[in-house]
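Data deposition worksheet. Section B asks for the primary sequence of the deposited chain exactly as it was used as input, without tags or linkers unless they were present during the calculation. Section C holds the resulting structure in token form. Section D is free text for depositor observations; keep each observation to a single sentence. Incomplete worksheets are returned to the depositor.
Section A, Depositor: J.P.
Section B:
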Amino acid sequence: MAAEPKSAEVTDWAGRLGWVVGLLLFITFVYWLMRQGWKWRGSLQSDLPPLPGIPDHPGEARLTLRGRYHGSTTAGQWLDRIVAHGLGLRSRAELTLTDAGIAVVRPGANDFLIPAAALREARLDKGIAGKVLTEGGLLIVTWEHGGKELDSGFRADRAAEHAAWVEAVNSLSDTHHQNQHASTTEGTAR
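Section C:
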């Protein structure tokens, strides 16, 4: 009987291991570059003052919303993400609209207040840096902080709540700006 032929070893372990190590090093390098870019963007935005904290007694809640915070951008530039002071971190969020403004509570991230005086408008949109949905899928709140207008994007667990928020925020913003204009006009008339 003839000896059975043996098949040759197919796996080149050294070569395969080299490719795996090289791929892991490449992925680590790309992750490091992304992290450095995030830090660099944060240092460019270091002129943005710290976010206002939520007061102990913000007032009676007009509306509440549970959902997700998707980030903030420079107003009108939906790809120019703001990362300073944790504004670039996505998280779960609970919003409460009061006469003081919008309290944004984010587990695992910094809570902050969007003061009523800083509110400019609210609208429904389809995207903000890194998140694109169907038309009207995001609640975008435009507000001023540190002399810069920002757009902050939120998505409610129930998207039907967005329309009520747009109406309420725009009403609060208009009322506050009318009162501010009236007090300014009254002050200059004296």
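Section D:
The beta strands are 63-74, 81-82, 91-98, 101-105, 112-115, 119-125, 127-128, 131-132, 138-145, 148-156.
The mean pLDDT is 84.
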